[in-house]
Amino acid sequence: MTDRARAISAFITPFGLFEWNRMPFGLKNAPQSYQRMLDNALYGFTRIPRLEGDPVSKQLDPKTSPDLIPAEPKDDGKKSVLGRRSYIDDILITAESWDHLRNRVEGLLDVCDEWNLSISVVKSFWGKDQVEYLGHKVSNHGLEATPKDLSALTDLSFPGSLRAMQSFLGSLNYYSKFIEDYAIYAAVLYELREVDFAAMNKPENRSRIQDLAAAVGDDMEQTGKPAEADIRWIRA
Fold first, then answer.
1. What digits encode the pLDDT tens for the residues 205-232?
2. Neighbours of 79 (CB within 10 A)
3. 157 is in which domain, residue-wise?
4. In what order do the strands lie in the sheet with 130-133?
5. Cβ atoms of residues 129 and 140 within 8 Å
6. Which residues have a Cβ under 8 Å from the Cβ of 224 and sit 6 or more positions away?
7. What pLDDT is stored for residue 225 in this prediction?
8. Which end of the chain has less neighbouring CB within 10 Å, N or C?
C-alpha cells in the first residue's frame, strides 16, 4: 500500500485509527491491482516504462513501494513463466511432461520469492492429471462442467414468470458452450422476452425448456485436440 492509499483506506475502531500496510479485500480497485501485479510478475511485464509528468509517480515512495514505481523493464527478453494468464490468485500451470512441469514450478517459485508472494500449500494441488479450475474440470481430454454446479440447474422448477425465465436463461448461458444446438433450443425462449409471457403455456415452449434442462444433465464435455503427451497440471 502506498502512503496515500493507507491514508484514504484507514478505518476507525474502539482502539483508535488503523491503516492497512498491505492491500486488503474489499477495496474497489483491489482485484484489478492484484491482477496487474500478477501479470507483471508471471508474464514478462516486470516494469512499466515511466511516463513523463505522471502525477501518480510523484505520490509513490520508492522505499515503501518499489514494485509500484514505473521504470524501465528489468529484462526486455524475459519469457512468460507460465505461458498464459491466470485469474487473479487462481494460478494454473500446464506442462507436456513431468520434467517440463518441474521446470515451470521452479520458475513460479522463483518469481514468488522475488515478488514476495506466498502460496497456500493446503489449497494447492500438484502433479494432477485433472483439476477443477474456475468451475470447470480441466484435463488433457478437454474442458468439462462440474457436476455439483449442474445439479443446481437441472433441479430448477419450471419458470413461472418472465423474470424467472430470464434468470433461467442467464444461468444456462454460462454452460451454453457445452450444450449442442443451444442457440436453436433457446431461440424461442429468448423471443419471449419481447412478447407476452402467457405464450409460455404453449406446448412447444414448455418442451424447449425441458429439452434444455435435459441437455444440461448430459455428458457436458468440450474436447480439444487429442494430446499424446503426458499432460500434468498444478493449481495454486
1. 667 666 766 666 555 555 444 444 444 4
2. 9
3. 147-220
4. 130-133, 136-139, 142-145, 221-222
5. yes
6. 142, 143
7. 47
8. N
232 contacts 129 by C-beta, under 8 angstroms: yes
Residue 235 belongs to what H/E stretch? strand 232-235
For 1-28, the pLDDT digits (tens) are: 778 888 989 999 999 999 998 888 888 8
Residue 96 near residue 231 (C-beta atoms within 8 A): yes
Taking residue 148's Cβ as centre, other Cβ atoms within 10 Å add up to 9
For residue 90, the cross-strand partners are: 87
CA atoms 80, 99, 94, 152: torsion sign: negative
Which burial class, exposed, middle or buried, applies to 122 when counting CB atoms under 10 A from its CB (0-12, 13-18, 19+)?
Answer: exposed
**Residue predicted with more confidence, 35 or 218:** 35
The answer to whether 228 touches 180, Cβ cutoff 8 Å, is no
**Distance from C-alpha of 145 to C-alpha of 88, rounded to nearest angstrom:** 21
Same domain, 151 and 201: yes
Contact 59, 13 (CB under 8 A): no
Provide the sign of the torsion angle of the four alpha carbons 34, 40, 46, 49, taken in this order.
negative
Grid coordinates of 46: 516486470
- Shared-domain flag, residues 10 and 74: yes
Ramachandran region, residue 44 (left: φ > 0; alpha: ψ -120 to 50; beta: rest): left
Maximum separation of any 2 CA atoms in the chain, in Å: 70
Mean pLDDT of the chain: 72
Number of domains in the chain: 2
Residue 234 maps to a domain: no
